[in-house]
Structure to design on (413 residues):
């Protein structure tokens, strides 16, 4: 296909209402009693990129980033918890505060010894090739934190980004998927040449070594889980907005097969999966791709310059509208529906799917101030010991939505 470029000036500009009841209270839906949900209290104009984690004390935690708009230096990490005995998410508190960088993509990791690690990125404006990964550590179930420190710095040619959870193997090895945001000489970062790696620690995070994934240009947000046979399955977001990509490792994450297209579409937006206690895989994702797009953006940061919000959003040159650059990142494919899919065969097929949210998924702008963005995106998913699935995702970039269902909710709809 040859999608038509569309600038923000010509994008649809409806004024949808804000998400209902952003009070953190978990309620069952009257039209679907098997589903419970809440909108977490929104601390900022824009709220995006949630990640869930179970804390040592049994509470459920959620982190995300919020501020004026992604890439602006007031973006910082926010944290909320759902007490195991409560039905309301706590008021969010900030966990980062660097007013020179946009602090993004947080994740929480509870170590085997009960520490909680917060990892997040920190970049200059919309330049993801400047991003570094920072860490803070809590020894009291995420109530107090150590000062931040840089875990993985940018290296001058690429920034380093995180999104997906740390995995602890039976051997005790820690695996942290990362992706490299690669600079293009003479151009601002666009995502065209990003690659994936795995950071490996065999000494509980004291030291790390990087193992690049071969032929992974355009494959990012690597999500790793061990399968029943001991091999590792990685699923990726595709910068080309074509398919969810897959790779496998049979040696504890040291070497990987090159990412290859799976059976599900991808729209250059995040996915996340978990292996269920019954052996099935549960994946939260957007069931869409570039094939569903009617237009595209120039980049992720069209409205951002090095000083903050640009006075005039970037627009493609008129003579470039019908052209495609082979291998370039595709921005603007609809980020909807938000779908829960189940696989009975280790990710080979996904025969069971049900939509959590439906809509047009309009994301040709990241503008949350004027409520122009209508995406459902960046899901996080985990299963607790009682079998319940917990999900959190971006709702129109205005709020983080939490949903609680049983795995077979996807089958019974």
């Amino acid at each position: 296909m040859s999608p038509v470029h569309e600038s923000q000036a010509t994008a649809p500009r409806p004024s949808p209402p804000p998400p209902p009841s952003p009070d953190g209270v978990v309620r069952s839906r009257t039209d679907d009693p098997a589903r419970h949900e809440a909108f977490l209290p929104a601390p900022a104009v824009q709220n995006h990129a949630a990640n869930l984690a179970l804390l040592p004390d049994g509470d459920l935690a959620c982190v995300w980033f919020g501020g004026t708009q992604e890439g602006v230096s007031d973006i910082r990490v926010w944290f909320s918890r759902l007490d195991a005995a409560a039905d309301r998410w706590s008021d969010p508190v900030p966990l980062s505060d660097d007013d020179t960088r946009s602090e993004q993509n947080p994740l929480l990791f509870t170590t085997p010894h009960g520490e909680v690690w917060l990892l997040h990125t920190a970049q200059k404006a919309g330049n993801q090739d400047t991003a570094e990964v920072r860490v803070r550590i809590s020894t009291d179930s995420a109530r107090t934190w150590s000062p931040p420190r840089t875990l993985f710095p940018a290296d001058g040619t690429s920034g380093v980004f995180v999104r997906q959870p740390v995995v602890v193997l039976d051997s005790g090895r820690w695996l942290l998927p990362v992706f490299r945001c690669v600079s293009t000489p003479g151009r601002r970062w666009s995502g065209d040449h990003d690659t994936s790696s795995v950071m490996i620690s065999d000494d509980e995070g004291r030291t790390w070594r990087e193992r690049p994934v071969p032929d992974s240009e355009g494959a990012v947000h690597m999500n790793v889980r061990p399968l029943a046979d001991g091999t590792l399955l990685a699923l990726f977001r595709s910068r080309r907005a074509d398919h969810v990509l897959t790779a496998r490792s049979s040696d504890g994450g040291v070497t990987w097969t090159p990412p290859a297209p799976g059976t599900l579409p991808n729209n250059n937006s995040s996915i996340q999966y978990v292996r269920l206690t019954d052996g099935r895989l549960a994946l939260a994702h957007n069931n869409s791709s570039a094939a569903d797009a009617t237009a595209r953006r120039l980049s992720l940061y069209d409205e951002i310059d090095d000083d903050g919000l640009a006075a005039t959003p970037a627009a493609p040159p008129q003579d470039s509208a019908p052209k495609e650059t082979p291998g370039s990142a595709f921005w603007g494919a609809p980020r909807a529906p938000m779908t829960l899919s189940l696989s009975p065969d280790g990710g080979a097929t996904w025969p069971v799917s049900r939509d959590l949210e439906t809509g047009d998924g309009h994301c040709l702008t990241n503008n949350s101030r004027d409520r122009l963005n209508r995406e459902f995106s960046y899901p996080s998913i985990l299963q607790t010991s009682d079998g319940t699935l917990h999900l959190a995702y971006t709702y129109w970039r205005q709020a983080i939505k939490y949903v609680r269902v049983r795995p077979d909710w996807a089958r019974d709809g």
In short: Helices lie at 409-412.
